[in-house]
Amino acid sequence: MNAEDELRLNWFGVGRWAAPHWFLGPEPGGDHVADWPRVWRDQFASAELVDCRAHCEAAGGEKWYRGSLPTQPYWRGLIRTVLSYRGEPYDLETVRQYQQSRFGTIDGEIASLELSANSARSLAVDVDRYSFRYQRVAVLRARLKEYGPDFLVCCGKKLQAEFEDVVGRLEQMGSHRSDGR
After folding, report:
1. Range of weakest confidence among 7-16, 61-70, 108-117, 160-169
2. Residue 32 CA: distances (Å) to CA of 59, 100, 113, 157
3. Residue 153: strand, helix, or coil
4. How many helices (H) and strands (E) would you count in the chain?
5. What does the alpha-carbon distance between residue 54 and residue 75 come to, in Å, rounded to a whole number?
6. Would 170 disulfide with which of 7, 90, 161, 175, CB 3.0-4.6 Å?
């Protein structure tokens, strides 16, 4: 199997499976990094989840870890969700510090997972989101059952059917929808 297909099948995001707080999105954001499949295989030994900072440094996104630069917009929402859930402050500086030291670490409390391993800036970008989808959903389902996080937030209103493939019918799980329904 080539490195790109191996990545599409086996890389699920950043953090650790035993993290108590899971977020599931459609795919990693940003632009496609052509060298990422090789780097993932060589530097991360084809791990299902990797450390976010190490991933960013390997893929050219180290700017999110420098001084007082802005927080990464998507991560900011995830971090604020966790801090709020725990009753902690979630001001921008606290979020920045969390992002730089704890977000998506291999020993941390957040797993940021993806339905697809192919990166895209938005759902409007045409990328292959379906290669190995059946196999990926099966792994996500198995890990959810095995690790039972405190909560799982599915990120993306347009993907309810795909998320239900992983977690089952949302109405049956006592879920809360952020769009008010």
Report:
1. 61-70
2. 9, 23, 17, 23
3. strand
4. 7, 5
5. 16
6. 175
